TrEMBL record:
It holds the Pfam family SBP_bac_5. Keywords: Signal, Transport. Its main location: other. InterPro entries: Peptide/Ni-bd (IPR030678), SBP_5 (IPR039424), SBP_5_dom (IPR000914). Residues 1-31 form the signal peptide. This is Peptide ABC transporter substrate-binding protein.
Amino acid sequence: MSPARTRLLAGAAALSAGTLLLAGCSGSSGASSGPRDSIDYALPANFTPNWILPIGTAAHLNTNNISIANTLWEPLIAYDGSTGEIGWNKAGSVATAADFAPGNKSVRITLGDRHWSDGKPITSDDVRFWFDLIKANKKEWAGYNPGQAPDNWTSFKAEDDRHFTITFDRAYNPQWMLANELSSITPLPRHVWDKGGDARKVWTDLNDAAKNIAGYETDALWKTISGPYAVKSYSTAGKVVLTANKKYDGGEKPAIPTVNLLPFTTAEAEKNALRSGSVDYGYIEATDLDQKDSFTARGYEVKPWSGWAITYMPYNFNNPAMGAVFKQLYARQAVQRSIDQASLAKVVFNGTAVAGYGPVPQGQASDFVSRAQKDNPYPFSTTAARELLTGHGWTEQGGVMTCTDPGTGASQCGEGVAGGTKFEMRVLSQSGSTVTDNMMSAIQSSLAKTGIKFSIRTAPVNSVLAQTPQCEADQPICKWQLSFFGTAGSWYFPAFPTGDSLFQTGGGSNFGNYSNPAVDKLISASTTSSSTEAVQDYSAALAEDLPVIWLPEPVYQISVVRKGLGGFSQDSLANFHPAQWKWTG
């Protein structure tokens, strides 16, 4: 966790909340009987909001945190899919224009005539405040990838309160720069948040305040906003209530005064809330599609929410017990060939997922996917998987493949793999989802046929993210081996699907510490070339090198929306936009 928006999470999403009465309902139809001045939106099961600061850190990456923050503080340049296709949503942005200089080595930004909720104008200095904070604290910023923003932004020069220029270290693809880097900037209220001028201290103070979830609704820091909504309440118990910002002067005027973001411990609890009519905008799991008619009879429409995402399980290449095994390409090939994506998509996801064979989303048509990725380099075959292992020094003992021929020869286990090593992997997986549980069980059964033992432990998504970070082998936290946080999609891309955060050496969301210099060069080329061929080359390389375990990509969710709620398209970047919601009937 979009990060990268990049966002994780989303797919690796996570959230928390405040308090307010639910909207009324009448009869068995579940139709609202009260005034249409509020909406009850169901958050993903077992995902608790836990971060308000509009600057992501690795432990707080998820799309729902980002959605809430963007509703309070509008981005400089908002990229989303709310119109049905991904693009710059100027109505939800502070900037009105971005003019690249000839040669694409700089960009001149124009700000709209906008104001903070306390009446002060939003100026170039508020953007510089974000810029200076990120420059001084880049290693703590989840969006940081060495060599990219802010490293490649060599200067920030303000012309006046509404115009400034950012200069780059070289020419970049404007599409990539706009969608993947400039879209990460959020103007921040310097006159309220800058207490001393030292960027390191200000960063620490803001992050310390953001850790105090109980203080979100009272801390003055969070009262000066630029977005269409403000926090009315934000409870550690799991409910967030947003109220329309009456001082908002941007282009996305909120039509619904009160937005209740509702938490649920399980998908079943959320489904029961839908049945009772106490949710206006919720979801069902793929296993519930056979019940679609029961929800339409209650006054809802069922709308799959497609995502611009990939789903995967990262390996921890620095794990002291299994890292050496994970570094062997043949071992990763054996694992991938043991994953029956077609059956998982059809059976576990009830046909609502598509197989994913590489680092570029395959659920939506695009020019970015390579032929190698489309064709699936490692089709399912546990027989072929077993042959890969036995051909490299492994022998099945007691049902588990064991390294019996250590060494670095072509038919041996490989560098660092000790004799007697058992091919035993364990995953920390998100809890609260029947679909996730079913998929993990199916993978466990399939891997067992190859002779790979796969054990499963579950935890809420926030805990999965916190317990499976980037690490060094000698750190106690580095005992994790595999991580899964993405039943709704592990990683939601910005418009341009490069892998700088995920798979570049040192990338901010490269949880497993994957590193391949050749891939680094391909990723770098994709950010500078205006040709889609550069992204396709990257797509092909990682489809073959397997930095993670590729898994089927599901829809973000199967939404169940009360009839009469409209005015928007579901954002394929997996953000929700309360200001776009309207009761139309």
